[in-house]
User: Which sequence fits this backbone?
């Protein structure tokens, strides 16, 4: 089983930056693909970015590519999402997730990001 705890969300002005962190604990973390999702009011939860636990194979969807960067801090067992040039439409609850074949997806409890115009 994997436990995930997000932090770092807050109110920020458009054009600003935030760094979200997801503290991961549990067994066999190295076998998981880690990801960040966002759920905005009235919308379904959407995938944003993923990275293998080794730190390779980072991927981001087009809407955040070039603005959001995912990374792994192995010393702290955290998955980080650096978000730059934030826009009001980036507002929402950000969730960390862990995936691997044959296992359920694990979710954190989420952290709220609000971008004011």
Assistant:
């Amino acid at each position: 089983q994997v436990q995930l705890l997000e932090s770092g969300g807050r109110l920020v002005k458009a054009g600003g930056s935030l760094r979200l962190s997801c503290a991961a604990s549990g067994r066999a973390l190295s076998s998981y693909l880690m990801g960040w999702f966002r759920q905005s009011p009235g919308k379904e939860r959407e995938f944003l970015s993923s990275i293998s636990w080794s730190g390779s194979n980072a991927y981001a969807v087009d809407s955040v590519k070039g603005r959001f960067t995912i990374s792994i801090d192995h010393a702290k067992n955290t998955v980080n999402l650096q978000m730059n040039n934030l826009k009001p439409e980036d507002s929402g609850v950000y969730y960390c997730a862990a995936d691997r074949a044959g296992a359920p997806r694990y979710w954190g409890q989420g952290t709220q990001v609000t971008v004011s115009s």
About this structure: The CA atoms of residues 42 and 92 lie 10 Å apart. The longest strand covers residues 18-26.
